[in-house]
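Why should sequence recovery work at all? Because a backbone constrains its sequence more than one might expect. Tight turns favour small or flexible residues, buried strands favour hydrophobic ones, and helices have their own preferences. The token representation captures these environments compactly. In the example below, the structure is given first.
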């Protein structure tokens, strides 16, 4: 990071442990990464922690409850009403991307992605959020 401020906190919600490792390795120099392996685990994270998350990266295809439902439930939480949420997914359908943006997603990032692309997209999300506030 360019200044001495605290690292922004990102919650990654993905049932694929490999994705957790990849993203953590790509981003942990600039961000503090918290991980959840399911939508239910992500929701429990917010009920059981006082950590303020700055961004949620959310997979769509997960067991139990999918990313769409997790997005809606998280949006209802007062802690997350203003935090940007982006989908990071292998879903490659234009209609699904449109659905994500219609729901209020900050971005729709397709797997696989390159490290610089991911960092730039996250930076853009934070830049847009800063302009809104």
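From this structural description, the recovered sequence reads:
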């Amino acid at each position: 990071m360019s200044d001495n401020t605290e690292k922004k906190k990102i919650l990654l919600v993905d049932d694929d442990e490999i994705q957790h490792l990849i993203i953590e390795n790509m981003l942990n120099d600039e961000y503090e990464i918290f991980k959840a392996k399911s939508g239910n685990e992500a929701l429990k994270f917010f009920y059981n922690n006082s950590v303020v998350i700055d961004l949620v990266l959310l997979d769509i295809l997960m067991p139990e409850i999918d990313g769409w439902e997790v997005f809606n439930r998280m949006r209802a939480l007062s802690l997350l009403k203003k935090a940007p949420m982006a989908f990071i997914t292998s879903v490659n359908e234009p209609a699904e991307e449109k659905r994500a943006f219609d729901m209020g997603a900050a971005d729709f990032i397709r797997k696989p992605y390159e490290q610089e692309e991911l960092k730039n997209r996250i930076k853009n999300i934070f830049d847009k959020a800063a302009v809104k506030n």
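A few observations help interpret the result. The CA atoms of residues 1 and 30 lie 6 Å apart.
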